[in-house]
Structures are given as structure tokens and as C-alpha cells.
Write a structure and sequence with these properties.
There is one protein chain. The protein is an alpha/beta fold and 368 residues long. Helices cover 36% and strands 20% of the residues. The chain has three domains: 72 residues, no CATH class; 50 residues, no CATH class; 175 residues, von Willebrand factor, type A domain (Rossmann fold), CATH 3.40.50. The strands form four sheets. It has a six-stranded mixed β-sheet with strand order 9-8-7-10-11-12, with helices on both faces. A two-stranded antiparallel ribbon has the order 1-2. A two-stranded antiparallel ribbon has the order 3-6. Helix 8 links the parallel strand 10 and strand 11. Helix 3 crosses helix 5. The longest helix is centred in the N-terminal third of the chain and has 22 residues.
Length: 368
């Protein structure tokens, strides 16, 4: 009975924590405070102290609240009066940090944004354990020794060597006769996905714009890892030229050159063709910029790359335009005009931190 009571309390606590997360999801997304507390499978979430309500039994002859000696405004026994206070030694209110699986965080995000599950295309053939010891091996621990197969091997060896005596049928296995149970492996299809993040790092993209991109990328990754067993992430930065970089460089690099968006699209296309063939991978390119491009001719080249090459090879192409004091915002207008009615290209405006959640919903809300 005690174990059952503990399980009930644990389930109730998880439900309370889940409710708190859903209540504060907009704040978590906007602040980005979860990014620095992310582990491999869990994220640490700061929460206020949770106090469960309880009944107190006893007489209450006076009724109402605030009974007892004293006047309104007078400090209760043990408390200091108003005035210039000094450092105290009493206990204060403490917060609480709770480890929540990223899988649970993804489910909460999906429920709040009503995100549909993705129907993946393609797969990789991976060898995974079948879960049963149905194979036979010549090596292994003695605890997995297969007696019948060992005896059979020893019998066959003695018959072949002429040492077996039917009148005195003694079979003595030696080391080379030992057979062991082995965990069988099999080919299983597993859907794999790759996210290719591209970001403008020219002088007009400041720290605040990069922080918006970083926050949004965290939640996009969380949702896609919930949908796919295998997820790879690649990063491309560009100004007038494009380069593939690691995650830290992607979010912290600052350049001062011009902006040529087609350089990033060409490098993205090269990665897709060489490393992530369309028959085996679900490809999700995400491009973030403030909307400036160096010329209308390069924008036309970007549109041609999208129509002829990128869109046919990816599940969905997403463009997020962050607001910048120096960005014109023209590139989104050009994409919207060129791809009106095309479902595989989705654009969004990210005006500030509160625009991250609607942007995620726009990008992931089609279940591609």
C-alpha cells in the first residue's frame, strides 16, 4: 500500500509540474533560460516552490480570518516592524529546479501549439539488436553457454576423429566445441532527419537577433527530436560568402561584410546532394536573416535555386525574418510574392521574443 501511495504522489507531482510548464511556456520560450540548462536527455526547469493545499481540523469559534490580539498593521510575534531593516538570519522562500525529459517538453509544446505529428519520408537501414538470444556464437560468457549445441559439436568432432566409442559413449567437450547464445541483430528501417540552419551574420545582425534565432532553434530541435529517432544538425553562416561552422560559432560569430543570400543556399544544396540524399533523409532547411540582400539579381537567383533544386529535395523550407534596425525586410516580401500558394516554403516575421512561439507554430504546424 505504501508503494502505491508513493506512486500516486509521484504522478500527482508530475502533473503539477506539467501544468506549471504549460502555464509558463510563453515565458520559457521568450526568455531562453532553458537553453543553458539542457542536458543530453533532460532539461532543468526553475519553478517556484510548490505547496500542496491541505485541511487543518480543529475548532474555530470566532470565525473569519485574522483573529488574535493586536491591531491592524502591527507585526506578528517574531517579525520585525517596518523601518530600515538590516540583513536577517531567517529562512526565505526558495525556488525549485525540476528535471524534465526533453521528450515531455516536446509533448507540451505540441499540445500548446496543436502541432501535428510529422509523417517522415525515406529511411536508413540500421542494424539494431532484436532483443532475443536466437543466434549462436563460438565466443561468449559461460553464463550463455548453449549445452545442446556444445554437446553436438563435441560429438561431431569425436566421430570425425574416430575417437567416439559407441560401447562407451563418453563425450567430453573441449574449448573449440563451446557454443554460446548470441543476441541476434536485424535490419530495421528508422526515419532520419537533418536540420540545416542558415543565418546571416553580416553587420546588421546584432546580438539580440542572434539570441532570437538561438531560442527558436532550441524549440525546433526539441520537437524534431521527438518526431525522429535520428536527427543531425548542421550550421551555415553567410555574409557575402557562406561557410559551414559548429554550433558555438554559429550563434556567436559576428561579421561586418555585405549580404549575399545565394551563397548560403548553394552551400545548403551541396550538403543535401552529397551527404543527405532525398531517398534516405528528411531535410529541413531553416534560414534566418533581417531581410537584406545585396541585389535584386541575387534574390532572383535565390528564388531559382529554391524552385529548381532546394524545394524538390527537402520536406519543407523555412525562412524566419528577425526585426533589425538596419534590415529592410525586403527578402521576405520577395519570397512571399514568388511562392504564393506553395506549401513547402513557409515564412514568418519574428519581431521580438514574443514572436518566437507564433513562428514555431507557422514552421511546424503543417506536419511535413
Amino acid at each position: 500500500m505504501s508503494v502505491r501511495r508513493i506512486d500516486q504522489d509521484h504522478t500527482r507531482f508530475r502533473q503539477i509540474v506539467r501544468g506549471r510548464i504549460k502555464q509558463d511556456l510563453k515565458r520559457f520560450v521568450a526568455s531562453g533560460e532553458l537553453i543553458g540548462k539542457q542536458g543530453q536527455r533532460y532539461v532543468t526547469i526553475p519553478m517556484p516552490q510548490i505547496v500542496l493545499p491541505r485541511f487543518r481540523h480543529g475548532e474555530n469559534p470566532q470565525g473569519g480570518v485574522g483573529q488574535g490580539e493586536g491591531q491592524p498593521g502591527q507585526p506578528a510575534p517574531g517579525q520585525e516592524a517596518e523601518g530600515q531593516g538590516q540583513a536577517g538570519e531567517g529562512a526565505g522562500k526558495h525556488g525549485l529546479e525540476v528535471e524534465v525529459p526533453l521528450e515531455e517538453l516536446a509533448k507540451i509544446l505540441g499540445e500548446e501549439l496543436a502541432l501535428p505529428n510529422i509523417e517522415p519520408r525515406g529511411h536508413q537501414q540500421l542494424r539494431t539488436p532484436a532483443g532475443r538470444y536466437t543466434g549462436i556464437s563460438r565466443s561468449g560468457p559461460m553464463s550463455l553457454r548453449h549445452w545442446k549445441r556444445t554437446f553436438r559439436a563435441a560429438l561431431q568432432r569425436q566421430i570425425a576423429s574416430g575417437t567416439y566409442d559407441p560401447n562407451h559413449p563418453v563425450v567430453v567437450p573441449i574449448r573449440e566445441d563451446l557454443r554460446f547464445r548470441a543476441l541476434q541483430t536485424r535490419q530495421t528501417p528508422r526515419a532520419s532527419a537533418v536540420v540545416i540552419y542558415m543565418m546571416d551574420v553580416s553587420g546588421s545582425m546584432g546580438r539580440e537577433q542572434k539570441e532570437l534565432v538561438r531560442n527558436e532553434a532550441f524549440w525546433i530541435d526539441t520537437w524534431l527530436r521527438h518526431q525522429y529517432h535520428e536527427l543531425e544538425v548542421r550550421y551555415i553562416v553567410h555574409d557575402a560568402e557562406a561557410h559551414e561552422v559548429d554550433q558555438h560559432t554559429f550563434f556567436h560569430l559576428r561579421e561586418s561584410g555585405g549580404t549575399k543570400i545565394s551563397s548560403a543556399y548553394e552551400l545548403c544544396l551541396q550538403l543535401m546532394r552529397e551527404q543527405f540524399p532525398v531517398g534516405e533523409w528528411n531535410v529541413y532547411p531553416f534560414h534566418f536573416s533581417d531581410g537584406d540582400n545585396w541585389s535584386a539579381r541575387d534574390t532572383e537567383h535565390c528564388v531559382a535555386l529554391l524552385k529548381d533544386s532546394l524545394l524538390p529535395l527537402c520536406n519543407q523550407f523555412c525562412y524566419g525574418q528577425v526585426k533589425s534596425a538596419y534590415g529592410s525586410g525586403q527578402f521576405k516580401k520577395d519570397l512571399d510574392a514568388a511562392f504564393r500558394g506553395v506549401d513547402k516554403l513557409v515564412t514568418s516575421d519574428i519581431q521580438d521574443r514574443h514572436g518566437i512561439l507564433p513562428s514555431i507554430q507557422a514552421f511546424l504546424g503543417k506536419g511535413r
